[in-house]
Amino acid sequence: MSEQHISPAGEPGAGEMLREERERQRLHLEDAAEQLNLRPSLVADMERDNYEQIPIPTYRRGYLRAYARLLGIDDRMIVAAYDHVHGRSDLDERRVAPISSIKPPSRTGTIAFRVVTIAVVIILAVMTLLWWEGRESAPGYGDDTAMLEQDTAPPDSANDPDLPPTPEAQPAVDNTSASGSGNMIDGAPVDTALAAQIAKGDDDGIPEPGSLQVDTPEGRNGATGGLVDTASDEDTPSDPVASGRSVKMNFGGESWVDVRDANGTTVLRGLQQGGTTATIEGVPPFRLTVGNANQVTIDYRGERVDMSQHAGSSNVARFTLGE
Q: What's this model's pTM, rounded to 2 decimal places?
């Protein structure tokens, strides 16, 4: 059975008011339904106050307002007429939403979270301390020697023809003869007859001190086996600085140096500490390799050597003094 309500006291209902206005405007039902985007049957039921096709009261009021606005009449009057017949009980209903209670976190969970946090912090602190102690106790920690030597170490003399071979690379001299008698000095034979005479205590024929000579390579003292200067004593100046036989080096910071004289003798080699001074003597010219060159000052023959002319981009200077 259709749901159709009649307005009390003969008052026109909302649908009847809409139908009368539509007919007065000579608007066809199909045209009104098309503009409202509704089915013509639904619009016809609304004009008869039959709302079976619209079960929800809120939608009914919405369609009635839209229809009234289409016809240009007051939509509040149309809705009031509908409420007068059908009532407003749907609008007066209050739906109470369930209240969701939020439980506070349990005390046990809070304590467990704090304990875990503290344990993680302690573990991180212990690991950091162990790492730091291990770093300090590691070999070479705090000593930049390895890095400095890597940056300033002189090139291998075997690969650089301009430098003499290092003492480690020089072949060892066998001081024994082929028969193993050991009567060799720097590879030269010794007068064994004279040595035997000295051993027997026979002083006859023993040369004066300093006159015992053996065949030695050029540049070595036959009596001592040591290096001698080929220049005569009269030609050698008494002042080593003026003669160029002395080099003074001042180290403002740590520096690895290698200094060799004309005979290939290493007169200074190794890591020199900052704040120290070294005065070396030898036979010029000197071949120098100086690491961390901008921290080193060199005085030669009373003049300061300009290190900036010799130091390269690696701050390592390789040059010769006394040429």
A: 0.29
